[in-house]
Structure formats: structure tokens, C-alpha cells
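Summary for the steering committee. The consortium agreed at its last meeting that each partner would contribute one worked example illustrating the joint modelling workflow. Our contribution is presented below. We chose a case with several input lines so that the handling of multiple components could be demonstrated. No manual editing was applied between input and output; the record is shown as generated.
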Amino acid sequence: QGQLRESGPALVQPSQTLSLTCGVSGGSVSSGGHTWNWIRQPPGKGLEWIGYIQDTGSTYYNPSLKSRVSISVDRSTNHFSLSLTSVTAADSAVYYCAKGVLVWGKGTTVIVSS
Amino acid sequence: EIVLTQSPGTLSLSPGERATLSCRASERIIRSYLAWYQQKPGQAPTVLIYGTSVRATGIPDRFSGSGSGTDFTLTISRLEPEDFAVYYCQHYGGSFTWTFGQGTKVEIK
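What follows is the complete predicted structure of the assembly.
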């Protein structure tokens, strides 16, 4: 099934861009038939799907975040990335990456604060 | 965009009892693309069920999923102490947006 690990800054300034990376081990981001997802969970709240990229390169985003989100894949380093622009405190959350529904990373906490 | 509504919000039960969790979709879900997750405090969610009724690897058979169309159910036949957690349903699949329900907390009575 493989393993996933999120990485990136724990603190982001308001109005800046949040950038996270998900490293994939035990598998390839180029393998067919998978969706590479980002999900987040604000403190004390439920899960929110952010979006995914398919092996074809097609992307699908949560309509509520679509104007600020971009997900990309780097096949040379076997990882995929999340970019979220113009962040506010409401974007503070634990961010998870996932391969389909079966394999999730442990999550990384991001706080938006000056 | 399909909206998933889970009920009840909180379920208070004792170990050994049966738990029945509901997930209702605002539109018909095609091809059984419905999953259930368990989340314990401070941990990432763990998938229990996918494809409406397929248990993920290593998941005990006391967990079962059922349903079709717009109504789906997660049943825990006999609650073990480690089953007290928050449960989420999720609509997933290719070529459209995904969504989670708001969660059901199963707490010790």
C-alpha cells in the first residue's frame, strides 16, 4: 500500500501561501488508477476534503477552496504538493495527504498567525 | 456537490452493545463509492469500510457497512473499548468532487 508523509512549515503568515509536500514511499505517484488527495481538519472540527490530482494530471478541488488551491505532482521526486494562497486563521488545521481512501499520512499541523 | 448528513451526532452506548450509524446523501451515490473512517483523538483517520461494504485490511468483522442509493449504515455488532471514537462517512470516486459527513461520536454511556 505504501506510506505517505506530509512536510512543510508549521507556521504561515496571514495572506501568504501555504505550501505542503507529501512524500510517497513504497509506491509511485505515476502508478495508474490512483487519486492523490489533500484533506484538512481544523482544531476540534470535522474532516474537509481539499482536492486531488489523478495520475493523468487531472485535478478536482473543493468548490469552497477552488479559487485558492493548486495540487501538483513531481514524478522525479515521487511526491505531490498542495498550495493554498491568501491564507487566514481559518486555514489553520491538521493537513493530511492520502492515496485514494486506503492510505493516509499522519498529518501535519499548520497554524496561520503573525 | 453531494452533501452527506450523519446521524446521530453522538451515540452513547456501553461496551458489548450494538452501534448503528447513519449516513444520508443528498443525491444518489453511484457505484457504491462510500467509505467509513474511524478517528481517535490526536490520530489520523483510519479507513474501516470502502465500496459501501468492503472491510479494509485488518479491520475486525464486527464492523460492517451496508446501504445503497442515498442511505448508508455502519454497524458495529458488539462495541469493544477501543471502538469509542468519532466516525466519518465519505463519498469518493474519480472525476468528481469528494465530501465527508460531519461525523458521529460514539461515547461510553
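Chain B has no helices and eleven strands. Chain B touches chain A through 24 residues (CB under 8 Å).
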